[in-house]
Amino acid sequence: xxxxxxxxxxxxxxxxxxxxxxxxxxxxxxxxxxxxxxxxxxxxxxxxxxxxxxxxxxxxxxxxxxxxxxxxxxxxxxxxxxxxxxxxxxxxxxxxxxxxxxxxxxxxxxxxxxxxxxxxxxxxxxxxxxxxxxxxxxxxxxxxxxxxxxxxxxxxxxxxxxxxxxxxxxxxxxxxxxxxxxxxxxxxxxxxxxxxxxxxxxxxxxxxxxxxxxxxxxxxxxxxxxxxxxx
Length: 231
What we know:
With 231 residues, this protein is an alpha+beta fold. It folds into two domains: 1-50; 52-229, 3-Layer(aba) Sandwich (Aminopeptidase), CATH 3.40.630.30. It is 52% helix and 25% strand. The protein is built from seven helices and eight strands; from the N terminus they run αββαααβββαβαββα. The protein has helices at residues 3-50, 66-80, 89-97, 99-109, 156-171, 185-193, 219-229, and strands at residues 53-55, 59-63, 114-120, 126-134, 139-147, 175-181, 197-204, 208-216. Strands 1-2-3-4-5-6-8-7 form an eight-stranded mixed β-sheet, with helices on both faces. Helix 1 (3-50) packs across helix 5 (156-171).
């Protein structure tokens, strides 16, 4: 085989390989869309069954869009948590500089199952929130929950947590995890009483030292976990 024929054959193989890869990419996208359609059906049916949630003090929990939740979050976050609890300006500056590079990852991440829940009082004013997302096919991550000061320590969080665990279990998850400051007794105590277990300590670059909690949603997992680590 002469040099020119070898080049042409290599080019043909590359072109063929490129077409195959393009076809596979299209097929994979269709598979992802089909999976998301199926999950959307499950989540829609689950939300219709569990929401709105009626909680103590005439509070109602409702699923909302991310924009509606984060409008409330941004308005009240500094009233509930000390300034700078969840971010760092040096890191924020770096994230802004890397925004274009990170964009495809953010778009793919948005295909996950997210929950955006707002709590409303009897006047239909938002008084708190919970948001979280799928961490993997078995685990739902409770990322952040908060209530305005006047609605704390009234049993609202505990009542909501009981309902939320049933909701997450109904969707099909196996466990729920969360992170909290070790001094956050208002959250740690209710969760431990409801069957959460301490499963680790993590050092986060912005938040600091966090206790990691896990709640096994099924008795088989719970019994194995307690057998290994004690109850």
